[in-house]
Write a structure and sequence with these properties.
The structure is a homodimer.
Chain A lengths: L1 H11 L3 E3 L10 H11 L3 H19 L5 E2 L4 H4 L2 H17 L3 E8 L3 H11 L2 E4 L2 E4 L5 E4 L5 H14 L2 E7 L6 H4 L2 E2 L3 H6 L8 E2 H14 L9 E5 L4 H10 L5 E3 L23 E5 L1 H4 L15 H21 L1
Parallel strand pairs in A: 1-2, 1-12, 2-3, 3-6, 6-7, 7-10, 10-11, 11-12
Antiparallel strand pairs in A: 4-5, 8-9
Chain lengths: 322, 322
């Protein structure tokens, strides 16, 4: 799947993933009106509105980007009807040839992580049959519980040739509260490099090193199936993490609405022009609400999203060229 | 809700939460046979089997424990039909008067955490209506993203008088990989205690301190609505964390199947005999598969679960008395 993602990035020339994170305030009134008329102001009505919204966006972008990243929280907030739309969205995007990164940020102890991995990336055994639950291509994972929370995901990824993006340094303002804390080197680490006293380093670097190690367990042709999440809002840290995890694809959130700019992104890429895929969510899916794309009007919100993707591609392309 | 949980703990004399973590290997053959005959060897068939299994366990324990903790991963592995059963289980347990702790370990950046909080603890606005998604009483939360990943949960908890248990030191063998790393004190921390050089401390203590601070924002009568998760498998760390978070209820997983024993638990409680609630999952729900309770037979698995709860209550009671 990492090979397929890279092939599609090369084909489209767009190291871009569109975050399908529908909030009702992004959905144009005409879609909400129609959905509520049919299903009422209910969870089902909300589900129908976001499904029609997603579908039109996907129809307008599927040929210019390699991947989408539905954020499951935005569906889970609508309970079961929301999750039904999450599943429909995953299936529809795959039909359209898009790589689907499930932004689920799961992570638990061993057998529980395995259940999440089975549900999102693998298949579950029921009697003599195997059944797929959500069946995304990649999933994001939270590493706070350590190796035995992550390895069950890797096991399923190996079976299914799927991949992960593990949280290393997140894009939000308070990500430093724990992730940036300076950590002492352990004796084993000092022995392994033959040095008496290694300097203190931020936790995200330690996590990044672990991601690189996990990545060696499941390599694709040129990059690992096991990638990392590093926020565009922290370009200097991205530079260091790029070196710590040379074979890990980096999923970079935080571009656009969260403040990350094209020029901030260069450090996340390797010299081969690969190694990173940049996410934009509301900057694309709610483009029609921005002044820049307002002329499309709410009726043509999908076309506004396409224009925003093409502008983003240009912005990143120029930054990488310079 | 924390007041209600404490009242129910006092009433039952059982600081116990039963983990409703159904795996198909725990479900007696007669239930699976019946469910598969009706729905086939499908996700729906698996869902029906675990629903009937849960229901019989709940019917046998609801009057002797204060709370249950369904682990959502065990439902999510069966896709939408599994999550439908998660929701049915939450609703059924609440009808039976049980406090429901959704073991969801969610956590993300601000607006996304808010969507999770809304979906699991609050209500979502659809047009002019408010709708409940999953509607548990408490949820577990992963703190890796820092305050702006946690505060949206606290905001919704305040609105709904609900609570959280935040991961501090998890019960799994590799939890130390990141959680135990020794962290340097920050200048602000040293200034706040007026000391020039504070000693290095493990990350879980830093997270524990933050939980105590977050807890002050949403206090119940004697304990905070914001609790912590600390594994029974690490009793010495539990002792320290008990002091760091005196007003936080501690949810203690790892008793039983994971190796934690009654005597390990005493440090998690305060002198008032309160402050902790101990989880057991397979030790209770799959009790009939243990030699000790085998005489009940698979047909009477619910009664075996009740017997296991009563034995656990005795074990903890004796440990606390001594």
């Amino acid at each position: 799947m990492i090979n397929q993602l890279i092939t599609k990035i090369k084909e489209t020339g767009a190291p871009i993933v569109v975050g399908l994170d529908p909030m009702l305030k992004f959905v144009p009134e005409h879609l909400k009106k129609k959905a509520y008329a049919e299903f009422g102001e209910t969870l089902e009505g909300a589900g129908e509105a976001i499904w029609q919204y997603n579908k039109e966006i996907v129809d307008n972008i599927y040929d210019v980007v390699p991947a989408v990243k539905p954020q499951i929280a935005m569906y889970e907030q609508f309970g079961i009807p929301g999750l039904v739309v999450f599943k429909k969205t995953v299936d529809y995007c795959k039909q359209k040839g898009l790589v689907v990164i499930g932004d689920i940020k799961r992570g638990d102890i061993g057998s529980t992580s395995e259940a999440y991995a089975v549900g999102h990336l693998g298949k579950v055994t029921v009697g003599s049959k195997s059944c797929y639950g959500f069946d995304e291509d990649f999933a994001t994972v939270n590493p706070y519980l350590g190796s035995d929370g992550v390895k069950p995901f890797i096991k399923i990824c190996k079976e299914e040739k799927k991949g992960l993006f593990i949280l290393v340094k997140t894009s939000n303002p308070s990500s430093g509260e724990f992730q940036d804390r300076l950590v002492k080197a352990q004796a084993a680490e000092e022995q392994s490099v033959g040095q008496g006293s290694l300097p203190d380093r931020p936790l995200y670097e330690i996590v990044g090193e672990q991601v690189a190690k996990w990545g060696e367990e499941h390599m694709g042709d040129s990059y690992s199936y096991i990638g990392a999440v590093v926020g565009a809002t922290y370009p200097e840290m991205g530079k260091i993490l790029r070196k710590i995890m040379p074979k890990s694809y980096i999923l970079v959130p935080g571009y656009g609405a969260q403040g990350g700019k094209g020029k901030d992104l260069v450090h996340f890429f390797n010299k081969d022009g690969l190694g990173a895929i940049v996410n934009s969510s509301r900057g694309i899916i709610a483009a029609y609400q921005q002044e820049k794309y307002a002329s499309f009007g709410p009726e043509h919100f999908g076309e506004a999203s396409r224009a925003a993707v093409l502008d983003m591609k240009k912005d990143i392309g120029e930054a990488l060229d310079s």
